[in-house]
Structures are given as structure tokens and as C-alpha cells.
Specification:
10% strand, homodimer, 203 residues, alpha+beta, four-stranded mixed sheet
């Protein structure tokens, strides 16, 4: 039996454009017959390696001003309710640690949508454990247990390894998509990446 | 009589993604019933104001490696013949000065396509007057006269003013598109910008 083609989806909970792709990828991938491999990671160490100690949208104000307007327009185009976050970027570390557990257990997609909506549609402090706990509970998941497992040394190390892998793969921003050895960067490349996967030999 | 909606098209002859938009914009704009106002400018001063003394694709190697692969893929998608330039970026100053004359006289579109093809499809030194002269001659234009008029103090000042205007408008990269007060950045926003223009009240 032929395997379905797969797209690796690299995203960060602090990232505004990751929000757009997290909200869109499942339906688009299903339509293209492509499996999604969710790869939460941290942009912070990747940016530090490029010499940025903050989001480039904060370091370069014209880029930042443009990004927020672009994001609002795209959210409207996609029918997503955008609300300007009171803080940017928010730490995605805890959310990413929890998301790794969700990858193992099969609930990473709804969890990721809920966290990114909390950040960019609800202006909630996703860096705080109480917010992540509420999100888990709303999804019917055992919040206390998962928050404890998220911060075990083993799970922390797993996220660090995933982030190091991102840098090794040449990633420099989020969202990014990989199909085989092909790298696609940006929410605006999601459709191209899925088309690449659809045309690739399966398996 | 209602005026047709207009898109301002800000581009730079050194810019790889400007190549893609210069090659695509006329047909897409015609299909959308939108006029194109060609705005050649220089990215160098804009980048300097952001703290970059070179193309960010050179300053940040992972971004640069990605850009060339992305460009090759997009060129294939659009049916454009890409050839990796032996030098990047090449100076677009002379080409932009000549292009300003082309805006006045109505030949800016074919001139811009020819120069950007020379840079990204033919690996020619578009910073050199002999190359720009050959391009003008091939288009049936008076090369010697235009090259002389390109470097008059008045025309140099006009390009400087246009570049300062770009910075005032919040531009930070090329290609960029403006529809009324709305700014769109990147070849991947060309279709969105045209759609915005199409839906805008004319005039």
C-alpha cells in the first residue's frame, strides 16, 4: 500500500504568521491528500544565531508595522478573527513543550489552534501555565498531569533537540514547511508546499 | 467617466523577487482592470536606514540560500527561465535612472523586463552602461541620448526623491505595491494587491 505524502510543519506559538498556517493547514492538507507532521519549535535560539535578540518585527519597526497590517488583512481574507495582542512576542516555550506531548498522543492540532487563537485572536498570555492549563482543560485533557510532564528534563531536552534540528535544516523563520529536502518558508508558501508534496512520489 | 483603479509598483533592478513581479504584473493587472504606476527606486538607502549595508540575503546566509531555491522554484512555476547570477546584488542605479525616463515616455515596462531578465535570466552586468545601452538599442530606443539624459543632475535628483518617498511610505523591501494607503510587500502579495485595487472605489 502506498504511503501518503507528508509535509513537515514547523511552527512557533509566538509567531503571528504561524497562527495563520496552524488554522489553515489541516483542511488544506486533507484536500491535497497530504499527511501533516507537526513540528513545534522555538524561534528564539534560531534568531539568536542570526544576531537577533528579539523578533525582527520589533527590531525593524517598518517591518513590524507592515506585518500587523498584513496579518489583519490576511485574517480577514481567511475568515479568522484577529485581535491585536497586547504583548509581542509572547513566550511559546511552555506551549511548545506541551505540544510535543500532543504530537505523541494525537491532540497536537486542536491544542495548537487553541493556543495560537489565544495569542492572536483572544490576547491571552500564552506564556503562563494557568492559560495553557485552561486551554488543555477546555479540550478535555488532563491539564495538571500534562503541565507536569511538559517540564520533565526529558521533555525539555526533546524540545531543545527539535529546535537544534530546525537550525540544522536551515530554517530561519516560522512557519516553515518541508517536503523531502525542499524547504518552504512562510504562510504564503503553504499551498505551494502542499502542491509539492502532492506531486512527490509517496513513501 | 470613472477612472480605473491604480496600483503603485515599487521595484528595484537589483532585487530577485522584483524580477518575478516585473515579469508578471502587466498581464495580471490587465486581467484585473487595474492601471500600473511604475515606481523604480533604490533599496540601498532603505536598507542602510535599517542597518544593512548589503542585501539581507547576503547578511543572513540561511535566508540567502533559501531565497535562491525559492526563486528557482517560483520561476519554474511561472514559466520564467532563471539563471543564477554570478554577482548579487548588482547595482540598479543606472537602470533605475533610465527607467524614470521610460516612465515619462511610456517604455518603462519592456525596459524593466529586459533589464531584470538580463540580471536573473541572462547573468549580465546590468550595472554597466554598455549593457543598459545594448538593452535600449534592442528595444529600438536611442541609447546614447538616454544614457546621457539618465545622469543629468535633475534626473539623479528625481531618483533620489523617489527613493526618499519610498522610505517615507514605510517601504522596507521590493517589490512593494501600494493601493491607496495600503502597502503590500513581496511578489507573493501581487495578486492580493491587485484584488484590493479591483475592489477599491475608482478615482
Amino acid at each position: 500500500m502506498a504511503e501518503r505524502p507528508t509535509i513537515e510543519f514547523w511552527y512557533e506559538f509566538a509567531s503571528s504568521y504561524s497562527w495563520l498556517s496552524v488554522m489553515r493547514i489541516e483542511a488544506l492538507a486533507a484536500g491535497a491528500g497530504v499527511e501533516v507532521a507537526w513540528r513545534p519549535f522555538l524561534l528564539g535560539p534560531v534568531f539568536l544565531a542570526l544576531g537577533w535578540n528579539d523578533s525582527p518585527f520589533n527590531i525593524y519597526p517598518p517591518k513590524g508595522r507592515y506585518m500587523w497590517r498584513d496579518l489583519a488583512r490576511l485574517a480577514q481574507k481567511y475568515g479568522l478573527p484577529f485581535r491585536m495582542p497586547g504583548r509581542f512576542p509572547r513566550s511559546g516555550v511552555l506551549a511548545a513543550r506541551v505540544a510535543l506531548l500532543g504530537v505523541e498522543e494525537g491532540w497536537v492540532a486542536p491544542f495548537s489552534r487553541a493556543v495560537l487563537n489565544a495569542n492572536f485572536a483572544e490576547d491571552r498570555e500564552i506564556g503562563e501555565a494557568v492559560v495553557i492549563g485552561e486551554i488543555l482543560s477546555t479540550l478535555g485533557l488532563p491539564a495538571e498531569d500534562l503541565l507536569a510532564r511538559a517540564v520533565t528534563p526529558e521533555n525539555k531536552l526533546a524540545l531543545r533537540a527539535q529546535t537544534e534540528r530546525a537550525a540544522e535544516l536551515g530554517l530561519f523563520g516560522a512557519p516553515s514547511f518541508r517536503v523531502g529536502d525542499e524547504l518552504f518558508w512562510g504562510n504564503d508558501r503553504l499551498e505551494d508546499a502542499l502542491e509539492w508534496a502532492r506531486r512527490s512520489p509517496a513513501g
